[in-house]
Design a protein that fits this description.
Number of helices: 10
Strand order of the largest sheet: 3-2-7-1-8
Low-confidence stretches: 195-199
């Protein structure tokens, strides 16, 4: 078996092209060389004078002072001065003064923070609420007095000699809600979805906003109108009789019957023929009403009763209207 021919380590170089020996930069032969450039003697002297170190340099003096003498001599002399020790009275007096100042600063700071956290609108709201409550109480008192006086007038009129009961007047007063009435009828009950708990927190919301749909004054007005249409003779909502001048409206977030506030559940009592009223107010006779309420999570309930008793409605004085012949 023949051995492969061995490749030469390097190619042979011509004698004329061989590199000449040169001194390496870090060889011992160049340690004493001052410059690798060829300069004249005058330039060498000027260059040597330019790189000469200045002994009296200010920056060197500053570094030397900071290194060897960092402490100011005046400060060293001040430390050598002996001060007189403070008396116990002055020490305790100073402590008491500092303690009083700290208490004063803390008290003023707490008052300032308390004023910052106080909402001035709360006082205004509280004042308005108290004023509104006082006005409502006064109005309720006056209304009660008017109702009592009207009842007394009716009683005195009935007790007059040779004056028999005026059936027409009595009928008109009962129809207008000026007299308390009793009789059979139905109870139509409505409740807000959240209050009724029928939807377990998934109550339907209004289309335009994210508010939960609740019973409104428009719903109560619609039901009262349907009851009048069905033949009801007297109607009351949560115990407040609907008279000829009784309004059903909303003030803010509150529903008012006249001037009285009512909340859910709304119990609408109507005196009339229980069978006719229940049939006229059923889901078969009022499909649109029930569809709208059921879509909002409101489920009306109707119950018949044979012993409803409604109080008289609040009446107002007629000052501008005159009897026409």
């Amino acid at each position: 078996m023949m051995k492969p021919e061995r490749t030469p380590a390097s190619f042979s170089v011509e004698i004329d092209e061989q590199p000449s020996k040169r001194r390496a930069v870090f060889s011992k032969g160049v340690q004493n060389v001052g410059s690798w450039h060829v300069i004249s003697e005058d330039d060498a002297l000027a260059l040597a004078s330019r790189h000469r170190r200045k002994v009296d340099d200010d920056s060197l003096r500053l570094i030397d002072d900071l290194t060897n003498r960092p402490l100011d001599p005046l400060f060293s002399d001040a430390r050598l001065t002996q001060q007189k020790p403070h008396s116990k009275f002055s020490i305790w007096f100073t402590r008491i003064i500092v303690f009083i100042i700290c208490i004063a600063v803390g008290f003023v700071g707490s008052v300032f923070v308390r004023q910052l956290n106080t909402d001035p609108r709360k006082q205004v709201r509280a004042s308005l609420i108290s004023e509104l409550e006082a006005q409502n109480a006064s109005l309720k008192k006056v209304t009660t007095e008017v109702t009592d006086l009207h009842a007394k007038v009716v009683k005195q009129s009935d007790s007059m000699p040779n004056a028999g009961p005026d059936s027409t007047l009595t009928q008109d007063e009962m129809a207008n809600g000026a007299l308390p009435v009793k009789g059979p009828g139905i109870v139509f009950t409505l409740a807000d979805p959240v209050a009724s708990g029928a939807t377990n927190g998934a109550a339907p919301r209004e289309n335009s906003t994210s508010h939960i749909r609740v019973v409104t004054d428009a719903d109560l007005q619609n039901i009262v109108n349907q009851l009048w249409k069905a033949g009801a003779e007297a109607i009351a909502i949560n115990g407040y009789r609907i008279g000829v001048s009784t309004s059903v409206r909303t003030a803010g977030q509150t529903i008012l019957i006249g001037v009285n506030q009512v909340t859910s559940p709304y119990k609408i009592e109507a005196i009339g023929n229980p069978k006719d009223l229940s049939q006229q107010m059923s889901s078969k006779s009022q499909p649109d009403l029930y569809r709208t309420l059921n879509a909002a999570g409101i489920n009306p309930q109707i119950s018949r009763t044979y012993s409803l008793k409604l109080a008289a409605a609040e009446t107002t004085n007629v000052s501008e209207a005159k009897r026409s012949k």
